[in-house]
Amino acid sequence: MKHILSTHLIANHRLTTAWLERVRKIGVDGVEIFCARQSFDYRDRAQIRELTHWFRDSELELFSLHAPMYRDEVWGRSGPHAVIDITEPSKPKRIDHVDEIKRAIEVAESIPFRFLVQHLGVPDQEWDERRIDPLFSSLEDLKVFAHQRGVTVLVENIPNGFSSAERLNLLMELTHLDLGYCFDVGHANLMEGIERAYEQMAPRIRSTHLHDNDGKGDLHWFPYSRPEATVQWRRVMQLLRRHQEELPLVLELREVEGMADPLGRVQEIFEKLESERDEEDYDR
Fold it and tell me: For the domain that residue 37 is a member of, what is the CATH number?
């Protein structure tokens, strides 16, 4: 399985080639760049140029990009205008939101990557049938734009009314868009449960997000790090290993203030995940 680290780990710090070099040295295969402008500013040509030169000379892969959720540099705290929502019913606003995501996709013209991970709506948003047509238009537009640049759009299960496993399947049925999924283990743990979500999403899963929580909040904890964590990683790995094709293990973690050597911990987590075996193996 490919080992991929999301730059979500440093989402409050500028993404630099020095940090990427440290990631390369721990032996991971690639990164998913999280498009938070305070970290990776997809509008900043100087930052893109610097990263382009570095990736060109490195064996570390830019595996995927996580679409921006906010257009500002403070997690949307500058006001409602900063929130990016592709279900927006107002056509001018929706087009503006989609155009912002397209700016991120254009990074592929300089640094090729395989997948764009996209949220449907915003966290805790309720299901609203009036938003289905705008959502369809947004995804159709993004799918074509991304494909022209060699990128495949994946939709992610997140804690809202549009993005449970069941609702994602319903949307694919209604829209006939035939998009793949990014299976977020931590989010599934907060919603219908990991095993149930996996079984419903499995035919379309192309990538993953791995992180832990207490079953109540979207905490993005390091796996194996907290006694109150509730994700059963042996079972997760059992499910992922049974997938029809090999899936990447993408760690999407939150920075822990004061943690010594977080990249060393990342390396240990990948080793522990790979050491997990199916239950049958343990019974022998």
Answer: 3.20.20.150
**Which stretches of the chain drop beneath a pLDDT of 70?**
278-284
- What are the DSSP calls for the chain, one per residue? --EEEEGGGGTTS---HHHHHHHHHTT--EEEEE--TTT--TT-HHHHHHHHHHHHT-S-EEEEEEPPSBSSSSTTTT-GGGB--TT-SSHHHHHHHHHHHHHHHGGGGTS--SEEEE-SS-TTPPP-GGGHHHHHHHHHHHHHHHHTTT-EEEEE--SSTT-SHHHHHHHHHHH----EEEEEHHHHHHTT-HHHHHHHHGGGEEEEEB-B--SSS---BPTT--TT----HHHHHHHHHTSSSPPPEEE-----TT-S-HHHHHHHHHHHHHH---HHHHH-
For residue 244, the model assigns a pLDDT of: 86
For the entire predicted model, the pTM comes to 0.96
Domain extent, residue 257, equals 4-283
Give the tens place of pLDDT for each residue, 219-234.
999 999 999 999 999 9
Tell me what pLDDT residue 278 has. Answer: 60
Looking at residue 282, its pLDDT comes to: 42
* pLDDT of 277: 74
Taking each helix axis from N to C end, the angle separating 233-241 and 262-275, rounded to the nearest 10 degrees, works out to: 60
Total domain count, the chain: 1
Query: Which structure tokens are listed for 203?
Result: 């035919």
